[in-house]
Amino acid sequence: MAVVYYNNEKFLNNPIVEQKLKLIYVCKADAPETIIPTAMHEHTNHLEIQYIRSGKADIRIGGRAYRVQKGDVVIYNAGVLHDERPDPNCGMSFFNCGIKNFKLPYLSEGHLLAHDVKPVLHAGNLSDDICAIFHLLFEQISNKKVYASYVCYHLLNALLTILTVQLPHEKLPLYDKFDASFQACKAFIDEHFTENISVEEMSKIANMSVSGFAHHFKKVIGLAPGQYLIRLKIGLAQKLLITTDKSITEISMHLGYDNISHFNNQFKKFVGTSPQNYRKLWLGNEQFQNLNHIYNELMRK
Q1: Distance between CA atoms of 132 and 126, rounded to whole angstroms?
Q2: Domain count, the chain
Q3: Structural domain boundaries enclosing 52
Q4: Are the beta carbons of 199 and 225 closer than 8 angstroms?
Q5: When you count CB atoms within 10 A of the terminal residue's CB, does the N or C end of the chain come out lower?
Q6: Interacting residues of 299 by C-beta distance below 8 A, sequence separation 6+
Q7: What's residue 184's pLDDT?
């Protein structure tokens, strides 16, 4: 037996514990369930944290590509576009959770890391502790434990404190001046992608030739402009399919598709299944019937 005394005169002030954090969801996914890739999307109003339990995946956050594996913690700041594609050979299993009302004094609401910090943290010797916290969060909610919300509130504070001050943070390499000016064009694309912007329009906004723009876009983003647009559309389609009761036709039209068959084909090509099957896989009929009510309750402050 070992007794360790903590006899500091006072605990350090912690800005995290003073907040009214709200756990929106907690998810435990095994490799067979993550075989379907998630296209480009963002969480507008909340922070998401993901812990990789096993396997590997290629993810893209804010226009940068990362390879993640067991023991990594991925931070998805609110409003930052990202997508995930598990390794087809070994898959990926993970925990994740969504958190509202999180605000650090020096960052925007829903941001755990500054924009110049790498959003993939390596848990190292704290890996088991972080995994255990996620496991407890999941068990408290899924088993409807007495005072689960109270327990989860303090578990979240522990998790956020570990991630904020106990894990090493790595600075991202700076974009060069050419890339910095390029970001304004990307921001326009991210906001107007449902309007079917042409590559010619994109290149004009970037003040570049069409061929020069296409080459530079793929160099910086890792995808051709057309591929990037499709991922934005499919990502929003995935979100609408599992957070609203809009019909497939309504979603297709919202994304700027004139032909629903074209939308279905592009969705199936990227995701591996049809929009209808994707919705059934994630929701089931009973939850779908109450979808708008469930989602609105979760997102209410």
Answers
A1: 10
A2: 2
A3: 22-166
A4: yes
A5: N
A6: 24, 45, 46, 100
A7: 78
